[in-house]
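Long-time lurker, first post. I've been practising inverse folding by hand and with some scripts of my own, and I keep getting stuck on stretches where the structure tokens seem ambiguous. Below is the full token string for one chain I'm working on. Before anyone asks, I'm not after the true native sequence, just a reasonable design that respects the backbone. If someone could post their per-position residues I'd love to compare against what I wrote down in my notebook.
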């Protein structure tokens, strides 16, 4: 095992519509680890189409990744090019899951730098980047409960250690981020929808405290056993409410957002309750009287209203909520560098012929 002060990692993220590079220092001082990070969102390129176009995304990653890596090196005070790469301890790149064109661009770039600079390559699972992101900023120790909610995923897992995940539940249809994005699209709020829905809901709540209860949307699976999610019925209910209310005023749109967000929040809190029970039964060595950390991660975890609801749920169920800074919740390269560092410290380096993967579950028993 390397000591915690042993080096610098370059992280590369290209699995969806964000091109990002970061330089991270493997130091014991949580909070001072990110030396440089640069990120280019492709939102404008895809907004016209109402969603991410894989071919356009891959081309944009090719166009911008080199510059972003140089920018991250510069921010970290490292020379550009070979001298900068020589200072690294390893190169980490998202190698899946995600849009395969983008994953190939990022992982090939990472491998080329690792090969040229004679550094270890770390093939990072994008979901593991999210899963470990809370540990970058704070000393969150294993095991913990993880609520991973992003544009492509909605899962609850027990995180035993780096590389050791047990999935308790997942979505049976849409991911929660998808539900936010589709709600926004139906209401004409643009893409990506999550932040727009959150802002509109906040305006509604500022106007009327109970705006989140104006539309009685369903809470799919709430009260049922297990930890799975379902969001497609909620999405349909939002569509029907829009049709019934049309033409929607600004206030109607805001109230619809607040009511949708409240329904989503209630679903999350209910699933966390069941997951806590299951985790306690599974983690027999974990002291029953000790609070288990509940880590939230993924783009949707940037939502402040959901964080507040989850904070209350955590308090109720004997958990401590650990929520990374919002910029670490949405896709970024710092979390990839960090996951790479965690792997490197455990000697888990990867061969240069490691194949990029469009699918890559955290829990291999739950493909
Ligand atoms: O983790 P992420 O950046 O990319 C994926 O790995 O999918 O998550 C993107 C998702 C999108 O669906 C976006 O609308 C949602 O996260 N999102 C939010 C917020 N910020 C981003 N959803 C709700 N509230 C937010 N503030
Ligand atoms: Zn992500």
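-- Answer (accepted) --
I ran through it position by position. Result:
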């Amino acid at each position: 095992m390397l000591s915690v002060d042993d080096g610098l990692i370059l992280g590369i993220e290209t699995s969806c519509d964000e091109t990002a590079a970061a330089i991270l220092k493997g130091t014991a001082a949580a909070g001072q680890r990110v030396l440089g990070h640069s990120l280019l969102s492709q939102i404008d390129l895809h907004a016209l189409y109402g969603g991410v176009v894989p071919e356009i995304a891959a081309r944009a990653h090719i166009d911008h990744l080199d510059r972003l890596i140089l920018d991250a090196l510069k921010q970290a005070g490292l020379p550009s090019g070979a001298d900068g790469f020589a200072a690294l301890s390893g190169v980490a790149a998202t190698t899946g899951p995600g849009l395969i064109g983008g994953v190939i661009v990022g992982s090939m770039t990472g491998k080329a730098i690792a090969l040229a600079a004679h550094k270890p390559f770390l093939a990072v699972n994008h979901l593991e980047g999210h899963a470990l992101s809370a540990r970058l900023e704070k000393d969150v120790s294993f095991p913990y409960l993880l609520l991973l909610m992003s544009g492509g995923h909605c899962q609850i897992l027990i995180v035993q250690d780096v590389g050791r995940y047990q999935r308790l539940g997942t979505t049976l249809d849409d991911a929660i981020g998808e539900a936010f994005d589709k709600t926004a699209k139906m209401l004409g709020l643009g893409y990506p929808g999550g932040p727009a829905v959150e802002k509109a809901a906040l305006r509604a709540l500022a106007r009327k405290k109970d705006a989140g209860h104006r539309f009685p949307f369903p809470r799919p699976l709430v009260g049922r056993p297990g930890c799975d999610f379902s969001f497609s019925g909620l999405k349909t209910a939002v569509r029907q409410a829009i049709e019934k209310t049309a033409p929607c005023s600004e206030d109607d749109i805001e109230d619809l957002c607040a009511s949708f967000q409240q329904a989503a929040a209630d679903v999350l809190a209910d699933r966390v309750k069941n997951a806590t029970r299951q985790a306690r039964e599974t983690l027999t060595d974990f002291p029953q009287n000790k609070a288990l950390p509940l880590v939230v991660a993924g783009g949707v975890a940037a939502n402040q209203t959901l964080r507040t609801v989850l904070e209350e749920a955590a308090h109720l169920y004997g958990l401590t909520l650990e929520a990374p800074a919002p910029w670490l919740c949405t896709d970024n390269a710092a979390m990839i560098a960090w996951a790479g560092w965690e792997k490197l410290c455990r000697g888990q380096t990867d061969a240069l012929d490691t194949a990029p993967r469009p699918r890559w579950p955290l829990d291999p028993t739950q493909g």
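A couple of notes from the structure itself: The longest helix spans residues 250-282. The pocket of KG4 (ligand 1) is lined by residues 16, 150-152, 177, 180-181, 192-195, 198, 298-300, 302-303, 330-331 (CB under 6 Å). Happy to go over any region you disagree with.
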